[in-house]
Amino acid sequence: MVKQPIRLPPGEKFRLADFDADYTGGIKSKKKARRELDENIAVLADLGYRLYAEDRRSLLLVLQGMDTAGKDGTIRHVMRGFNPQSCRVTSFKQPGVEELAHDFLWRISRSVPRRGFVGIFNRSHYEDVLVVRVHKLVPKSEWERRYERINLFEKLLREGGTTIVKVFLHISKEEQRRRLQARLDNPNKRWKFSRADLKERAFWSDYQRAYEAALTRCNTEYAPWHVVPANRKWYRNLTISRILRRTLEKMSPQYPPAEEGLEELVVE
Ligand code: AMP
Ligand code: MG
Question: Is 130 in the pocket of ligand 1 (CB under 6 A)?
Answer without folding.
Answer: no
